[in-house]
Automatic annotation (TrEMBL):
Region described as Disordered: 1-67
Keyword line: Cytoplasm, Cytoskeleton, Leucine-rich repeat, Repeat, Ubl conjugation pathway
Biased composition annotated in UniProt, kind: Basic and acidic residues: 30-40
PANTHER family assigned: F-BOX_LRR-REPEAT PROTEIN 7 (PTHR13318:SF50), PARTNER OF PAIRED, ISOFORM B-RELATED (PTHR13318)
Location of this chain's protein in the cell: Cytoplasm, Cytoskeleton, Microtubule organizing center, Centrosome
GO cellular component: centrosome; SCF ubiquitin ligase complex
Superkingdom in the source lineage: Eukaryota
Pathway(s) where this gene product acts: Protein modification; protein ubiquitination
Stored InterPro entries: F-box-like_dom_sf, F-box_dom, FBXL15_LRR, Leu-rich_rpt_Cys-con_subtyp, LRR_dom_sf
Chain intervals with Low complexity compositional bias: 10-27
Protein name from the UniProt record: F-box/LRR-repeat protein 7
F-box domain span: 97-143
Organism: Paramormyrops kingsleyae
Taxonomic classification: Eukaryota, Metazoa, Chordata, Craniata, Vertebrata
Amino acid sequence: MGAQNGKQYGSEGKISSSVSSDVSSGGTDHTPEKTPKDACTEEVILTPSSDSQSPLTSLNGRTSSNYSSSVTAETVALVHSPPDSPKTHIGSDKEHRTPINRLPDHVLLQIFACLPTDQLCRCARVCRRWYDLAWDPRLWRTIRLPGELLHIDRALRVLTSRLCQDTPNVCLMLETVVVSCCRRLTDRSLYTLAQYCPELRRLEMAGCYNISNEAVFEVVSRCPNLEHLDISGCSKVTCISLTREASLKLSPAHGRQISIRYLDMTDCFALEDEGLHTIAAHCTQLTHLYLRRCARLTDEGLRCLVLYCPGVRELSVSDCRFVSDFGLREIAKLEARLRYLSVAHCSRITDVGLRYIAKYCGQLRYVNARGCEGLTDHGLEYLAKSCPRLKSLDVGKCPLVSDAGLELLALHCFHLKRLSLKACESITDRGLRVLAANCFDLQLLNVQDCDVSLGALRFVKRHCKRCIIEHTNPAFF
């Protein structure tokens, strides 16, 4: 990797670099103290996260003005060789007497472990002791970079290069990378992670819409331990699969397997049934799958999913307008393994589909059917009688749900903790009173835009003391 990035590793582990500073002209830059002439540096341009807006006080016994509210755009964090000059050392007796410097190493490590990656890099610039502690391998199992990072590709390249210093060309400690909302993230970063981070287990890059299929294939092919992948909002991604080269190297019995268990493809608008079929065939160990607003999916895609991934426990197909009762019949084949199901705003779903789910998936804990206008009290009856362990239910904006369905829920689902009845026009005081008299564990109740009185709300609060009530009655506090 050294030749590729223009770096050479010296005998003392120092990094030299020919990469010039890359500072945006539109921001206010806060540069570190002048480093020794022999300590070459490489700059990573970072924008402060929300946590870094407040000053870092008590570091070296003083308030760092570089982190004050005057920071308006971006700051510079350096990955560099250890500070050697007296100017960069904490050498005075006054500084040694400060509280932060009297802390033992293991306490400082615990403090550093709470910092995001950009601030950890800044801490490494304070002195030699902090440099050694900040680059302790135990602190680098996770890289978490701010969402507005300007030069995210370069930042990941520099960081992985530094983490490969002790084990050239491979970073064995890094397991988690979170770069969500880094809109300038490109395939270049994923190729870097795939090449140098084989132990990667968790990758979150929600909202990074410049990512392509090929780069994702490279990561899942070269990171065999990857279990958690969040690519929500990556609108160019239409599939998850191994690269052709990876498939050829593996035996036929194992050549189609990817170890991903958690996959979030929310807002991957281009995903179609064919792509879901490929995902299911390769990611057979899936347990958590979120396909919200993947509007091109149909019941056929769900059939393939259940066929290849029988271990799915949580599934969301919210706002997938082509999913119907036939799709729920396929999902019902997951049986008792299914614990979480969201079919919100799937307008083709009726009591028939909910009956399939209730009959075969009796261990359900969470159901979201908001906006499914075809649901009636009969659907709630199936659900209440067959899923007594239900803890969370959302049937908001289901105008055909009335007090009768609510009474059935109250009589069978004693463990109900969260219930949304928002804009259920047929709900009245009678249904709420029965619910409150039986479901003492209720913690959240949404009755916004429901025709219920002030007395009914007070009745609920009196019987369910821990319940937070979301309502639109200005007289109730």
